[in-house]
Amino acid sequence: MIDQLLQTHIIIGVLATGVRLSTPFLLAALGEMFTQRSGVFNLGVEGIMLMGAFSGFWVTLVTGTPMLGILAAIIVGALMGLLMAFVSVTMQAKQGISGIGLYMLGWGLAGFLFRITVGYVTSVEGFRPIAIPILSDIPILGTVLFNHNWMVYFSLLLVPISWVVLFKTTWGLKVRAVGVTPEAADTLGVSVRGIRYACVVIGSIMAGLAGAFLTLGHTNMYGDNLTAGRGFIAVALVYFGRWNPWGILAGSLFFSIVDALQLWVQVLGLDIPYEFAVMAPYVLTVVALAAVSGRIWEPAALGKPFDREA
Amino acid sequence: MKRVSLFVVLVVVLSTLLTACGGGTTSSDKIRIALILPSTIDDMAWSQSMYEGILAIQEELGMDKVDFEYSESLGNPVDAGAAIREYADKGFNIIIAHGSQYQSVLDEVAPDYPEVSFAYGTGYQSHDNIFAYDPQAQEGAYLHGMMAGLMTQSNIVGIVGPVEAGDAIKYNYGFQQGVEAVNPDVDVRIAYTGSFGDIPKAAELAKAHMDAGADFLTGTAQQVVGAITAVKERDGVYWLSNDMDQSPLAPDAVLSAQTYDWVKVLKQIIEYRENGTMGGEHLSLSLANGEIKMVYNPNVEGNVPQDVKDAVEEAKQQIIKGELEVALPD
Known about the structure:
heterodimer, A: mainly alpha, ABC transporter involved in vitamin B12 uptake, BtuC, 13 helices, 1% strand, B: alpha/beta, Rossmann fold, six-stranded mixed β-sheet, 10 helices, 42% helix, 19% strand, globular
């Protein structure tokens, strides 16, 4: 039964599926990483993803141009981010609760807007895979990595970019400072509010893109609660990846490839109870997390509103 | 801080209002039907089929005779329980909780409202004022299995399932028997997403089935719209649909549909109530009583060879006459 799984085309299928499945996690989790690095805990990622998924889908349906859908998802994501930043940074609300509020708002609003604008199940022409010349001809690796739509490449490229921005630029240093000792950053003249607003908005735009990937780069349709909990998994992946882009990449790929593997195990009819297959990615992620545990570092000011007068 | 908490409460209330909607007026001699749905009225599957059934009843009996309200996206039975009590308090006579997952909630709520008739399905256990409706999904599934078994080129057919429960077990079991009966060489591959509403996962499962060689796919639950859209994007693969005719989603890929006639079921419930029976009946939907219908998609019906059609029709008549019984798992 194992030899069935070890055929080349199946390994390729599993890995290619895994890479595709990891994209929404990667986009949303890298964004949430910036948000949390600045000290804000945005639990509303799922709601923003739903709004991004809907707005991207609807604009594409109306205009026929998926890139305009992406633009809409960016704008909607930014607006949701501004709302979250206003509530959590300016008004200093409890971040867990406002995140849940944002999630419910996004879910309800996306469903409501879908009802009044579209109101039936339909599909759009989304992004097609682009085979990268030469690279896509590499055996195995070519199909696994270089035969996807642009959003998959984009999400992978964001990993080194995020790393450089966070660890090699002055702005990244400010973000990290604000997330650990906002008081110190403040005395040095760094605008804590400004940095946090920027990071929440960046994180929300990326959550919007993650949602738009599901409608325009994956399923080509929209349905109620389309994200089905992926936003919450993305938040968990930020912890798994220890607020580091490479860690998040590892976590996203690991979770998604195990998920792809369990789909294929079922499809090939291997004799494993489906309940075990379905829960495999979750169980193994927890196991992996436990196995590599040590003292867990997290941004010291995470979840704590900053008040200069306090 | 006060302002903020108020804002959060407002957001929560607003979004709850947005997800649950409805409308109607009150009158005592009216039939007042409330519907609780696990997904939405436009899911192009399970929920929409019942919603359209009630609209048809309203049309037929007169808009002034039937009051109708509904609540959507109540997949969680606990939330559904609150909505069910609210409808009962508001004086609705017939409250339909459209899913097998609502059975235990109804068992708990129904005794408090003896004047109200409750209904749920897929299920068979009924009580004093609870009706259980029960589509014999395995019957149409058997016929779909025959179509797939007779027409597949690759000898691989795939099922995109939700969780191994209720309707899905019946459907998958019937489908396997249909395939087996006409072509034992075919490999029927059953896979589950672990959810009823994970559209991207259903799409991914369909893609994996097709990559692994399947050229006929089928499945149940509202999430299959994702799978159907994925099937539409490949040539030479057919989808066999369930719950309602899903061919508008993929006019060239959906070959046939098993549909449920909820209008007849609803009429039975209304009639029982008029005769003083508040519940306690097991309402079976079957090919024999005409409450399950099989429809070919006219766009692609021409691709079905005549001998396949004849064989399917013959089996259908045998099921109706009771000469062929599609088994259910123990």
